[in-house]
Amino acid sequence: MNREIFRAYLFVIVLLLLLINGFAQKPLTRVLFVFDASNSMKVMYDGKPRIEHAKQLFTHFIDSLSKFKNYEFALRMYGSTVKYPPGDCKDSKLVVPFGKNNLTQIKAKVNAAKPTGITPIEHSLTESANDFPDNKSINTIILITDGIEECGGDPCKAREKLMEKGIIFKPCVIGIGLTVEQAKTFECVGNYFNYEDASSFNHVVNIVTTQQLNKTTAQVNLLDISSKPTESNVNVTFYDQKTGEAVYNYLHALNKKGNPDTIPVDEFRTYKVVAHTIPPVFAENIKLNIGTHNIIPVDAPQGYLEIKRPQGFYNFNEKIKCIVRKAGTMNTLHIQNMNSSEKYIVGEYDLEVLTLPRTYLYNVKINQSITKSIPIDDAGMVKLTLPENGDGCILQDLNGDVKWLCNLQASQLQQIFYLQPGNYRITFRSSSLKQSIYTIEKKFSVKANEQLQLYLTN
To answer: Which CATH architecture describes the domain 380-455?
Structure first.
């Protein structure tokens, strides 16, 4: 074998070894313990102070997690230095930073902890974002506490601030002696576990060691009338069900295979998912399964409504609009332009086209994926010339019955009206003539897409 071939083989072997090592190398996992050393930890619980239970639990975690390679640990304590009362709401400190071979130091700090101060949970969790050297590793927090926020903070906001800084983490909260109501305050923070539950320890270790790599994702299936996820191209918003805040906002899409697109989501919120169809449709109280792909079905069958008018010679149609309402209601869902098409949820609608006079259509049915076309007669143009300033109106003539349509402008001698085909009357009295007998009444007819010139004389 000549030297060139040998070098080539050697290069390939080294490259393969590097690749194998790269694939085998697991990503670095950093675990930050946030330990509650506040004054309430003095309270007796199951025969001994709560802090003794916390220390025992902490030791179990350290002993179990220390067996795994490529892990780093750190310790933050709160309520450990300033005596309560009064305590200090900034009493939170990174006691042992992340590093290798620091478990002995971490254990010693926890074993020496004495219940002292107050409970600043939001401040502690927010500050913990600065405890992680970067956001490239798998970062997690284990909070061991016996109390709730005592400094007016909101633990939910702390989680949001951590996410804003790019800290990807799934905190585990271990509650010692908390009531059901107290435990609920941590639902927005992360996985909550009760110290009394014998399986809590194994659950937390499992999350830290196996589930950190699994992202929580969701897809919204906009279902058609056959419950198939074929509807799309609609804006979708994820709202926090508790606060009403819009958390995610995106235009729904189907991928190349025709499946609804997937988005990563924060799994610790309860959502209200709204598809901004006409009218909007939604799904409420959506709780996601952590570390898995979630499918959220929303019934959104849609069809099309087209409102059209012939484009005549004079093109009188540009400004006409149509009010769309759910059948039998007066709430305006949408205002649609003339000669346009819009999608609506399958159902029945009432239409009020803003012609003069109004054009009303009731119980217009929209069917799945079908275009319902509504033709509207073209208008005619009436050019009115008045002899002088005065008052008057235009009325629709319905076989002898008259219906008021609009008033004339008292100070304009030249006026233009766009009227639907039909019979009309106009009444007028000059401002200088103060008696009703001087009223002028004129009958006229309007044809589609034609102009009519009207002159009124005293």
So the answer is: Sandwich (2.60)
Helical spans, DSSP H, in 152-199: 155-164, 180-184
Alpha helix ranges (H) inside 25-87: 50-65
Q: For strand 321-326 and strand 332-337, is the pairing parallel, antiparallel, or unpaired?
A: antiparallel
CATH number of 26-211: 3.40.50.410
Torsion over CA: 429, 432, 437, 440 (sign) = negative
| Residue 169 φ/ψ, nearest 5 degrees | -150, 160
Domain spans, the chain:
26-211, 217-299, 302-375, 380-455
**Secondary structure (3-state) at 170:** coil
Euclidean distance between CA atoms 412 and 385, whole angstroms: 9
Identify the three-state secondary structure at position 116: coil
Token pair recorded at residue 325:
């309402």
Which of 269, 21, 30 shows the shortest CA–CA distance to 136? 30
Check if CATH label 2.60.40.1120 holds for domain 217-299: yes
pLDDT tens-digit readout, 298-346: 999 999 999 998 876 556 555 789 999 999 999 999 999 999 999 999 9
Q: Do domains 26-211 and 217-299 have the same CATH topology?
A: no
